[in-house]
Amino acid sequence: MTNSDNLPAADSVPSIGGAPAATSAAASGTVIGLDIGGTKTRGVRFEDGHVVADESVGSSNVQNVSREEAALNLAELFARIGGGAVAQVYAGAGGIDTEGDAAALEALIAPHAPGAKITVVHDSRLLLAAGGASTGVAVIAGTGSAAWGRNGQGEEARAGGWGYLLGDEGSGYWLGREAVRHSLRRMNQGLAPDELTTALLRSCNIDDPNKLIALFHSPETGRRYWAQQARLVVEAADAGHAPSQALVEQAGRDLAGLAAQSLRKLGIQGPVILGSGLGMNVVRLQESFKRSLAAEAVTDVRVLDQDPVFGVLQLVAEQEQP
């Protein structure tokens, strides 16, 4: 389970990419693209290939929120961007690993676009298409992490995407959790709080590293809360804090490892497209990612320059090809 949300604080590593006036993929009629992550749902309404509405609400991924909350968020989103006479809804979501996952989300979307063709895929497909590629490997580095790719024979491969309890290496959540672990290790060693710990305590509004333990396990915090702390690691790394630099470097290597696994399964050398909040905005992570893939002789590595939801029209166009 993963998602591609731009992190609110490494999501506040700020979201970039915006809504282009029109996309290169031709599409007639009304198409709604949805990018459904663990912390937010973004919806874009396209009329004949042009963006006419672009809104975001809370998550509608049932692996991250209750079915009731997901339904309410989708209702709010469609109220903003409009439903009604829609030809297609194309949704990318984290955690779409089985046909059952896709069907469950389709059932939540269907009441808002009666008669529309609804397609639900893993959100990494949006990322690859937004990078202008029909084959290659897309790597999500947002609140969670995953890699997905496809080769010229139509074979697909995934790596990672196991969710925060089992993986999500190199993600915002991973960096936030590692900041907590770093702070607790220093506490156990009898060392005073360093720059990263001090920033973390301030952000969490607590005065003692020992209180991080209860806060981390509290129902009042969760994946999004700790993913937001990733920005502290990035800021400390940029300010010269060596342990934070090592964490960001490791994140890049881990993400490159996911990409390399998918490339090997597919028997291709690229392209590799890095996206989502951390991937699109943290230069230090991008450099580590590229260096690690260069060591695997992978040189066609691109950083996504528009948000994944804008890959929807290319995916719709591919569906329509004979």
Can you walk me through this structure?
The protein is built from twelve helices and ten strands. By secondary structure, it is of the alpha/beta class. The strands form two sheets. The protein has a five-stranded mixed beta sheet with strand order 3-2-1-4-5, with helices on both faces. The chain is globular. 52% of the residues are buried.
N- to C-terminal distance: 32 Å
Order of helices and strands: EEEHEHEHEEEHHHHHHEHHEH
Largest sheet: 5 strands, mixed
Using the CA coordinates, give the radius of gyration.
20 Å
Q: Report the principal-axis shape.
A: globular
Low-confidence stretches: 8-25
The count of β-strands is 10
Q: How many DSSP H or I helices?
A: 12
Widest sheet: strand order?
Answer: 3-2-1-4-5
What structural class is derived from the secondary structure elements? alpha/beta
Give the averaged pLDDT, no decimals: 87
Strand content: 15-25%
Helix content: 40-55%
Describe the structure in brief.
The protein is α/β, with parallel strands linked by helices. 42% of the residues lie in helices and 19% in strands.
Descriptive labels:
19% strand, five-stranded mixed beta sheet, alpha/beta, globular, 322 residues, 10 strands
Record the SSE blueprint:
Blueprint: E1 30-36, E2 40-47, E3 50-58, H1 67-81, E4 88-93, H2 99-109, E5 117-122, H3 124-130, E6 136-141, E7 145-150, E8 156-160, H4 172-188, H5 195-204, H6 211-217, H7 223-228, H8 230-238, H9 242-266, E9 272-275, H10 276-281, H11 283-294, E10 301-303, H12 312-320
Parallel strand pairs: 1-4, 4-5, 6-9, 9-10
Antiparallel strand pairs: 1-2, 2-3, 6-7, 7-8
Helix pairs in contact: 4-8, 4-9, 8-9, 9-11
